[in-house]
């Protein structure tokens, strides 16, 4: 078995070695670009870790891991168009660099590349892998749709919000793990348990992100602290505050939402969060999901020592400050 | 064996019976919309006809036929965004009706729906089918990319143009047939021969389209006669004329390209085509590809009577006036 860092390196190498067609250059160049922007490769790492739990071979599982990573990067290209985002990992987004039309089409062909990767799996596991992959991809699209709709919606319930982040973010972590388990020959129940682990870990991870956006250490947090507040993003914290706040405080929140002084806006909105102990309440909500994740992994009927790396990775993700 | 009309009806029914998820509504509504705009369903008909050549079962082949038709309609949604097209089959395009972001995302999830259809095929033929489908999808994306690039390019050779329409249009006809043959258990050689038939038929079909745009009967041709001329579209006819025209005639062509009086523009450009017998030359080029198609089907080693329907369909496509 390997550590997450070792697996990340193996994946990084495999990503660099994917051969895309040379022509038309403008179609494939954006794929090479986004795939080489790096990141922690957390999704394919989870696929390989899930496979190793069941003594699966890393190289045999690699097509599934690369399919997941390629699909994820495809969604980044199309999401960035829809969100009108100028930057991705500190670099120009694909549509900024090559134009929207090119970004749409390079994204489309990346989806095909992901499916090509997947089709290299052993025939014996192919059908199950396709079903998991397609269900995952569909969920991610649904999540992005809900995310866009929620931006326009006046009222969003916390349950709806959790369902949205489940689809947009968590389903892919769950799917990545289920895929790894299936390729390694896990039983349907075992594969499903890993899905549960990954999905709940993903929800907890995203809620943690919501908390860190406000309470993260500016020295350690990768993004701008208060970014969600500036953008009036409907996060768990904002939705929770809206549920609890008095009429007066809701008015203050409304006023802050149009405050052009960003430093002041962050300070005053955070003060409102503090008044209602939103950080504590959000942490409780987050813990619900991380508990579910850990309990799914705990109840998985395999030797405890095989689970060590996965427990430690999950622990690390849940206790990060960045 | 069935006639193309019978198969079209079977497919129409199957398309109407595809169950898409209900929510998020705005994600799936565009799929139902574009899939119900109709059309001749020529690609899935070819898939089923190819299967019947090898005594394949229609219902067993249907997932492949529906995957092809779903994929084709997905490309229509994304192409219409890129081409900024307001209408598709006389109705509002998806991005006009639901907005660009929604059209991108509904297209994406349609690609997943196509893959879901395909994954319902028998495990025994799944890997070959995936390879054919993915190679086809990749080719179509490359064709669209080249089409966009050619619009910006000053000089496009006829060979490059034919390669572009091969990828953008013909590869999908070839892939549709190869897929049908593979699902029905044809040998690799037989499947490849049907691919050759479909691909060359597709090229001839598109060249025929270029000719009909100028010389079609306005009463019978589905689109506006002269539409390509108005749009200064680089068709086989225009590229051929540019190859042959004198300096003077090239100047006249240049002048016509900015002529705002469309009736006059069509009349004068067509006169230039007539001067160089472009219609005859284009027909010769077209015939090269239809001959290749017919010869691939002729040399296929199966009972002649099984080929009758396919020959007659191809004949009809090549001698259409609309």
From TrEMBL, chains A, B:
SUPFAM superfamilies, sorted: Terpenoid synthases (SSF48576)
Instruction: Supply one GO molecular-function term.
Output: prenyltransferase activity
The family database entries (Gene3D superfamilies) matched by this protein are listed as: Farnesyl Diphosphate Synthase
Name a Pfam family for this protein.
polyprenyl_synt
Q: Which UniProt keywords apply?
A: Isoprene biosynthesis, Magnesium, Metal-binding, Transferase
* GO process terms (BP): isoprenoid biosynthetic process
Q: Which cofactor does the UniProt annotation name?
A: Mg(2+)
Query: Do you know which InterPro entries this protein is assigned to?
Result: Isoprenoid_synthase_dom_sf, Polyprenyl_synt, Polyprenyl_synt_CS
What family is reported? Belongs to the FPP/GGPP synthase family.
Q: What is this protein called?
A: Geranylgeranyl diphosphate synthase, type II
Q: Could you tell me which species this protein originates from? A: Pedobacter nyackensis
